[in-house]
Amino acid sequence: MKCRHFLRLLNRYVDGEFINEIDKEQMERHIKQCSACRSEYDHFVALKKVVSQKKKVSVSEGFRREVMKKISSLEEDAEVRVEQLDYFARRLIPVPLMIALALAFFIVRFYTQKITLDDYYLSMFSDKEIGILNGTFSAVDILGIKGGV
Amino acid sequence: MLVERYQDMVVNLAYSLSGNIYEAEDIAQEAFVKAYRRLGSFREDAKFSTWIYRITVNTFHDFWRRRKGSVPLDVLPSLREEGDFRDSLHKKEIQSIIREALNKLPLKYREVVVLRDIEGFEYREISRLIGCRIGTVESRLFRARNMLKKILGPLLTKEKIL
Questions:
Q1: What is the pLDDT of residues A42-85, one digit of tens each?
Q2: pLDDT value at position A134?
Q3: Which positions in chain A touch B155 (Cβ < 8 Å)?
Q4: CA atoms of A31 and B127, how far apart (whole Å)
Q5: Is the pLDDT of residue B133 over 90?
Q6: In chain A, whose CA is at the least distance from the CA of B78?
Q7: What is the pTM assigned to this prediction?
Q8: Cβ within 8 Å, pair A15-B83
Q9: Nearest Cβ partner of B78 from A52, A57, A66?
């Protein structure tokens, strides 16, 4: 086994990860044969040992209380947002609803009077009488053309 | 209660990454609040510990960016470090040296060493926690250990660990 290959697998060997039996045997043989690589191996093992000795800390007594306080304030904020939405919903929704109803009323009325847009345009060039609003006028009257078309 | 069950784990991970106990608790609190907000997205077939660990690592990254990479390091060993009060000054000194050495590492190297050598995660788990390939975990670990070798080399010799 070459030193370069040994160093590439060194982490895995030290950590016991993803290394097959053949590579493992070759690593062990190489450690016995190569002093430089043996030194690298010894350093890595020693480092692991030292770093893993790092002491744990205990959590402060008020930690859980602080977390629950933050979560509660999240829930309160969410409730305020729902209330605000409700406030605006109660006031704004009726407005578009009224507009929609008014539009529906005029559309239905327009069609029930059987006046189409085509009729209206036609009336601009003919003597045909059409009802506009409540009155009845002829196109001649509207355009002020004497003697008809 | 999830907070009680995982608080030690989360605070210690944050402490290993940040090197400052007060900042570590702030990070841990933020991590729990984020976890609460995202509970709906937690897949029940996944391990909760892995999920909360991932949130903690990401929260630490956000914290690190906000602080522009500088966190006041605990100069003295934290009074809350567990252990026998009879632990010698010598042992406490060693702990301090280890903590300083870890904090000298760039963040991306520090986190793999912490997750592997202190928290004991496998490479596959680490790759999921920090969101990178297993090959990247390996190469960062290799570089991190080489850097630690330079920083802690004298200590290893002095303590006759080597």
A1: 989 988 888 887 777 888 888 999 998 888 887 776 666 666 66
A2: 45
A3: 50
A4: 29
A5: yes
A6: A57
A7: 0.67
A8: no
A9: A57
